[in-house]
Amino acid sequence: MTTHQWTRIAPQSGCSFIIKRGQVLRVVDPLGEQVSDLFAFDEHDHHCRLSSGRSLDYASRIYLTTNDILYANNSKPMFTIVEDSVGLHDFLLTPCSQEMFQILYNHVGFHPSCFDNLVNSLKEYGISGHQISTTFNIFMNVTVDTQGKMTVGVPMSKPGDHIDLRAEMDMVCGLTACSAEGSNNGRFKPIDFSIVD
């Protein structure tokens, strides 16, 4: 396998890229306890996009890991998780947004967010905010109790932990270093990624 150049996503920012079918996206937490939000579209049909509902439905569970498939809204496979050193990621919560910081945390004024970072990164492909929904929140630690209450805990990822996702179609992807204090144990750190042939 040939590894492309590593890219570092700065804290509280995001980027976009093309990945081709058969290539593997490796996402690394270089410093530990940092979440990364991933969203994807079929490169050739932006109506086909990542679906939390389809993915969790077909897996029959809410925590996806090695050998699980991330599906599109039209039930086509988008990614297969081929390696996962953490084993705990979230696919329930939407990317943090300006509105989320205001509603949940009474934050006043601008706050960087994964939603804005995805929108800004993906606009070069003609993708707008209304097309982005629930992200695959890599390394995010969300637990659900018996009453259905969700709690966001400290990510379990340690420095160097990674997840490898094989592309099952040609895709446009957005990836972030999450901007929410509550998801990252109160600190903001970078995310590294590469694409492997």
Write the layout of secondary structure elements.
Elements: E1 7-9, E2 14-19, E3 24-29, E4 36-42, E5 45-49, H1 52-59, E6 69-71, E7 77-84, H2 98-105, H3 114-122, E8 136-138, E9 141-144, E10 150-153, E11 161-167, E12 171-176, E13 191-196
Q: Describe it for me?
A:
The chain is mostly beta strands. It has one domain. It is built from 3 helices and 13 strands. The strands form 3 sheets. Strands 1-13-3-11-7-6 form a 6-stranded antiparallel β-sheet. The longest helix is centred in the middle third of the chain and has 9 residues, at 114-122.
Which key phrases capture this entry?
197 residues; mainly beta; five-stranded antiparallel β-sheet; 13% helix
**Envelope shape:** globular
Give a short account of the largest sheet: 6 strands, antiparallel
What is the domain total for the residues?
1
**Alpha-beta classification:** mainly beta
Rg on CA atoms, Å: 15 Å
Instruction: Report the order of strands and helices.
Output: EEEEEHEEHHEEEEEE
Task: Catalogue the unreliable spans.
Answer: none
Give the termini separation.
Answer: 6 Å
Number of strands: 13
Oligomer: single chain
Number of helices: 3
- Percentage of residues in DSSP E strands: 25-35%
Mean of pLDDT: 96
